[in-house]
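Practice problem: predict the structure.
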Amino acid sequence: MSKQRVFLSFERAAKDEPILSSLTGRFGLVFSIFGATVNDEKQFVALELDGEATKIEEALQFLRDSGVDVDVRED
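Answer:
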């Protein structure tokens, strides 16, 4: 199992989709939210993803393809 911290910025269209729930259902990942700002001006979520490294990479690509700006942080 791997852990990865990521910072996500959503555009208006992406914030109305159940994108985060897909991380669990579609990729089998567990996530913890350790920060968020979601309002009309900003849509920002900081997550720690936990799961298989290949599934984390697939999930990050899914997020990018869904219009989410993904910033991967190294510990």
